[in-house]
Design brief:
The protein is α/β, with parallel strands linked by helices and about 160 residues long. It is built from seven helices and five strands, in the order βαβααβαβααβα. The longest helix is centred in the middle third of the chain and has 16 residues. Pathway: Carbohydrate acid metabolism.
Length: about 160
């Protein structure tokens, strides 16, 4: 079994919440959607089509880190930059990351077909912010073209073998 909590990461539209909930079920852990930990000012900013900056993100990441440190949990959290992932690692030693990766076209199609505070217009800013994990981060990466259940199965198997 995975030795620490898990963050299912990626840009908006990658399926973090769907895969995260499925993965938590497979591991027998709690699932938390990191979006629910955003301060209301962040939600309002994103809903208005304004990208968050680091000053907006730090308090949110601290809230995510606190939840990760609280116990066996899978959290959906974009964690787009290495500095964000490092902050979460500092808050919850042993945290593992699962990156949901896909083409811009597939991400945009998913975003246009759902009701969420994050508008499709912010996809390009999210993709520009994304820093692909370095090999020393040991992030598990899955293609979102696969069915969410298959991704969750593979991630559970890979986390248990880690």
């Amino acid at each position: 079994m995975s030795s620490g909590p898990v963050v299912v990461m990626g840009v908006s539209g990658s399926g973090k919440s769907t895969v995260g909930a499925l993965l938590a079920g497979r591991l027998g852990w709690v699932f938390v959607d990191g979006d629910e930990l955003h301060p209301s000012a962040n939600v309002a900013k994103m809903a208005a089509g304004i990208p968050l900056d680091d000053d907006d993100r730090w308090p949110w990441l601290d809230a995510v880190g606190e939840r990760l440190a609280a116990g066996p949990v899978v959290v959906a959290c974009s964690a787009l930059r290495r500095a964000y992932r490092d902050r979460l690692r500092a808050a919850a030693p042993g945290v593992r990351f699962v990156l949901l990766d896909g083409t811009r076209e597939l991400l945009a199609a998913r975003m246009s077909s759902r009701h969420h505070f994050m508008p499709e217009t912010l996809l390009d800013s999210q993709l520009a912010t994304l820093e692909r994990p370095d090999p020393d981060e040991h992030v598990l990466v899955y293609d979102i073209a696969a069915a969410p259940a298959r991704i969750a199965d593979a991630a559970a198997r890979d986390l248990e073998g880690a």
